[in-house]
Known about the structure:
This protein is of the alpha+beta class. 20% of the residues lie in helices and 41% in strands.
Amino acid sequence: MNLITVEDDIVTRIGTISGIKTQSWPDDPAEFLKGFPNGIILVRYNGSVYEEAEPNNQPKVVQERTLEWEMFTLSKSFKDTKKHQGAYTLVESVRAKLTGYTITGFSDASIMIPVSDKFVSEEHGFHIYSTVYQFTFPEAEA
């Protein structure tokens, strides 16, 4: 599994939401936000949980790996109905794009499942929401 490939696929999938930029989590979020007056969706890998592997005499360890990805929706308003870029609309747009989606090239992975969404904070004039998704993938290590 290549995390960069997965992240790129998620960014591409939700990047089709009209009128809003989508990209990977930046190195310096506070400085980064100055360039996006209307808002942005940021994608971040949070980590994985591995199912306990059964001991066997095989040359490979095979176990289920559940990956967690978090989308941060940043918008200057909650309900911008004219531009369809308010935080509420963007949270629902991300949910519609990712719920049930299978990562490209990972046909044996489960579909993306929403775990939570919540208001995080207001910073630098942006209303920030977090939406967390998980999917499970059979991981084999030699």
